[in-house]
Design a protein that fits this description.
Helix content: over 70%
Number of strands: 0
Order of helices and strands: HHH
Distance between the termini: 76 Å
Shape: rod-shaped
Largest sheet: none
Strand content: under 5%
Oligomer: single chain
Radius of gyration: 36 Å
Number of helices: 3
Length: 99
């Protein structure tokens, strides 16, 4: 960022007093090339930062969802447990007496 500011400042200072009918000086050409390159670097850095921030948000959301995920797994396991029904008359009577 500091290099971008310096290149932009050099370019602004070099072009402030320049004659618009004269070709760019070597200093102006160098400042333009440096500024363009630095802008590309800044855009790449910004994109990487956004990606890292997004990954951080997703990691936080995943960590926050862990207790709910565990509770859902336990609830699903309990919902699929089949209570054994008595099959014979004796088992039915024993189940009724147990209540």
């Amino acid at each position: 960022m500091d290099r971008l500011i310096r290149a932009t400042t050099v370019l602004a200072e070099a072009t402030a007093a320049a004659d618009v009918h004269q070709p760019f000086s070597p200093q102006q050409d160098a400042a333009l090339l440096s500024r363009g390159s630095l802008h590309q670097d800044l855009e790449e850095l910004t994109a990487r930062h956004a990606l890292l921030m997004h990954a951080g948000v997703l990691a936080d959301a995943e960590a926050a969802a862990e207790p709910a995920k565990h509770a859902a797994v336990v609830a699903a396991a309990q919902a699929t447990e089949v209570e054994r029904q008595p099959g014979t008359a004796a088992e039915m009577a024993a189940a009724r007496d147990a209540r």
